[in-house]
């Protein structure tokens, strides 16, 4: 899995070269199960592992940070960078900020940040959207606030957050796909809207503005601004468990599946190709 994820990190630079390099514990990686990746503004690759903390690759060697360095937990779910170049890390036991010198666990009295932090995303205003196992939280640099659903209940088990080109905010969980404008909930998309599988796990936006939706067990859906439909009605994916979607600069959607490798879908000519271990 790591080889594929490193490949995605360099798509912007080498979008026509499919060169895979496998990096493992023997190379200095803290742990073999890598769940999150970030290339920061300095070019470093941050890798969040499931039990080994964070490994940072500078192009030559790895440096590992774990509970001995101030992380509250060595299970890492997500990593993001802010405009000040600080690194934010979501762990199994809360949120951490790294300023280049030390790790600081973020606490608050108005929201629960001692939870499993499952996804992080900064919007255009620089506000941090935080998806946890129990709530959806927004941090404006000073204050934290909870966002609720249409029944004023917490939005639980948030798995993915996407800020689109129009600065609308899309939030996926086990109940479907939420659309926000600012802090206002616009709509919850569910089965009645064409999203037949509600376990939303990944989101991306293509060059034409379509929102691609990856689900756990239902494959891929597309929202074109008017309706949700399934591209697999024409192009069948053998694995319906989608772990990650990525839209590159060449109008290609990369689809990482659970058990069937990676699919490459060109939005220019609507062709799809499959990449497996042999590639």
Question: Which helices and strands, and how do they pair?
Answer:
Layout lengths: L1 H8 L24 E6 L5 E5 L4 E4 L4 E4 L10 E6 L5 E5 L2 E5 L4 E4 L10 E6 L5 E5 L3 E4 L4 E4 L12 E4 L4 E6 L2 E6 L2 E6 L10 E6 L5 E5 L4 E4 L4 E2 L12 E6 L4 E6 L4 E5 L4 E5 L4
Antiparallel strand pairs: 1-2, 2-3, 3-4, 5-6, 6-7, 7-8, 9-10, 10-11, 11-12, 13-14, 14-15, 15-16, 17-18, 18-19, 19-20, 21-22, 22-23, 23-24
Q: Approximately how much beta-strand content do the residues carry? A: 35-45%
Overall radius of gyration: 18 Å
| Helix and strand sequence | HEEEEEEEEEEEEEEEEEEEEEEEE
Low-confidence stretches: 1-16
Walkthrough of the structure:
Mean pLDDT is 88; it is low at 1-16. This protein is 3% helix and 43% strand. Strand 11 (136-139) and strand 12 form a beta hairpin. It is mostly beta strands and 279 residues long. The protein has 1 helix and 24 strands. The chain has a 4-stranded antiparallel sheet with strand order 1-2-3-4, covered by helices on one side. The protein has a 4-stranded antiparallel sheet with strand order 5-6-7-8, with no helix packed on it. A 4-stranded antiparallel sheet has the order 9-10-11-12, with no helix packed on it.
